[in-house]
Amino acid sequence: MEHRRVVNPYHCVSIRFGPKSCQLVRAIDGQRFLAGSAPQLPLPGCETASCDCRYLHHDDRRAAKDRRANVRDRRAYRMKDRREGSGRRVND
Fold it and tell me: Do 61 and 12 touch, CB atoms closer than 8 A?
């Protein structure tokens, strides 16, 4: 088996299981773990005779799209920055 050194600090893995996998690994289906804190395979307590589970590698723990693109009030991007100019105080 070839091991690679991962440079990305957010590199993560999920577990891909096969048709004969145990209920333990099915319970964590879709969950992503940082590569350094992922559970060892086979999972402790796995009752399958030959575990066919594998790690599936991802660049980031987030699976969904970036939420910042879903801003509801787009007017905020078109408004003038009111912080420009002087303040409310006499000595500003």
Answer: yes
Sheet with 54-58: list strands edge to edge.
33-34, 12-16, 54-58
Cα–Cα nearest to 28, from 15, 18, 40, 37 = 15
**Cα-flanking dihedrals φ and ψ of residue 26, to 5°?**
-70, -25
pTM: 0.58
- Contacts (Cβ under 8 Å, ≥6 apart) of 24: 43, 45, 46
Express as a percent the part of the chain with pLDDT over 70: 68
d(CA 29, CA 81): 46
Residue 82 pLDDT level (bands cut at 50, 70, 90): low
CB neighbourhood size of 17 (10 A): 21
